């Protein structure tokens, strides 16, 4: 049985990476876009692929619960927090060009990757210029916006599997579909992604990105913490329109509110708890189901433990 804050585990983790990369009892609301989430027993930010492998192997050997956490842009962590090791690859954030390809480590922001492509006049990643997640998170859920998705440009990825082994996989190996992949089912940790690009004109690429940025900033409630788009698009409908037509905009539970600016967003208006945020998600789902007979499927992931 894993013991919370076990000193032996701390010593093992700091033998793998520096003590500054291992935080004990770290509040996860400091690391999620929603500003929600209880504490992690160990919050670890490795600096090399070898350290990631060693941490995965340690968790297996010692039977320590293990959770991967990107930058938490499409994620809700419950108020009870997460037991065991929470690994964040945020220190793995290098982006480089290799001919007509861009190679980005998983902790890099996908927005920064699109800006890097622009700086090299490479086209293909414009759609991602406003997606707030990391590269690893973008592969995890095949992130997309404005008609583009990761699947369109991804060539390959380097991952660590559940055994701590390093694998190089093609995009086809990841079963990328609408807002999904096999990465969670396989237990892969993405370390880097290679995107296949095309030559473009700097001004044309910038014009597209500026237009998409304007659309996003004018329509989305970016001034508040949120998990982004809460629900997947149901076949034949738009989630935001269904929520709006259900008269749910402005609906509030505790500090969580259905955005008045975009009905598909739930914002953390006033220091909401994860419990309040999740209750509001369920209320929206129940109301839309009752009014229109449509089941809204969550796009956002919910992890962690309920408060004790």
Report the C-alpha radius of gyration, rounded.
20 Å
> What's the helix count?
8
Number of E strands = 19
Q: What is the approximate shape?
A: globular
User: What is the CATH C-level name of the largest domain?
Assistant: Alpha Beta
Strand order of the largest sheet: 6-7-13-11-12
Q: What is the CATH third-level topology name of the largest domain?
A: Uridine Diphospho-n-acetylenolpyruvylglucosamine Reductase, domain 3
Strand content: 25-35%
The SS-based structural class is: alpha+beta
Helix content: 25-40%
Biggest sheet features? 5 strands, antiparallel
Quick synopsis:
This protein is α+β, with helices and mostly antiparallel strands.
List keywords for this structure.
308 residues, alpha+beta, Uridine Diphospho-n-acetylenolpyruvylglucosamine Reductase, domain 2, Uridine Diphospho-n-acetylenolpyruvylglucosamine Reductase, domain 3, Uridine Diphospho-n-acetylenolpyruvylglucosamine Reductase, domain 1, 5-stranded antiparallel β-sheet, 4-stranded mixed β-sheet, 8 helices, 25% strand
């Amino acid at each position: 049985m894993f013991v919370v804050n076990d000193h032996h585990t701390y010593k093992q983790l700091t033998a793998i990476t520096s003590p500054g990369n291992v935080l004990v009892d770290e509040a996860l609301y400091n690391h999620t876009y929603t500003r929600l989430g209880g504490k992690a027993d160990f919050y670890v930010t490795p600096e090399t692929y070898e350290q990631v492998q060693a941490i995965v192997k340690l968790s297996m050997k010692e039977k320590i619960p293990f959770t991967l956490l990107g930058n938490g842009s499409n994620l809700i962590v419950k108020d009870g927090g997460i037991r065991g090791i929470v690994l964040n690859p945020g220190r793995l954030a290098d982006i480089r060009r290799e001919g007509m390809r861009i190679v980005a480590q998983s902790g890099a922001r996908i927005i920064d990757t699109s800006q890097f492509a622009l700086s090299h006049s490479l086209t293909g990643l414009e759609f991602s210029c406003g997606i707030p997640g990391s590269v690893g998170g973008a592969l995890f859920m095949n992130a997309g916006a404005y008609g583009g998705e990761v699947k369109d440009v991804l060539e390959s990825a380097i991952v660590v599997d559940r055994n701590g082994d390093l694998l190089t996989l093609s995009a086809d190996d990841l079963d990328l579909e609408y807002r999904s992949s096999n990465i969670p089912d396989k237990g892969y940790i993405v370390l880097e992604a290679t995107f296949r690009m095309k030559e473009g004109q700097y001004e044309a690429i910038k014009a597209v990105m500026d237009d998409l940025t304007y659309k996003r900033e004018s329509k989305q409630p970016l001034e508040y913490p949120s998990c982004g788009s809460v629900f997947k698009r149901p076949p034949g409908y738009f989630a935001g329109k269904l929520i709006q037509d259900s008269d749910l905009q402005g609906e509030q539970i505790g500090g969580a509110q259905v955005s008045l600016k975009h009905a598909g967003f739930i914002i953390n208006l006033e220091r909401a708890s994860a419990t309040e945020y999740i209750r509001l998600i369920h209320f929206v789902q129940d109301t839309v189901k009752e009014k229109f007979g449509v089941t809204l499927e969550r796009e956002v992931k919910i992890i962690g433990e309920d408060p004790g």
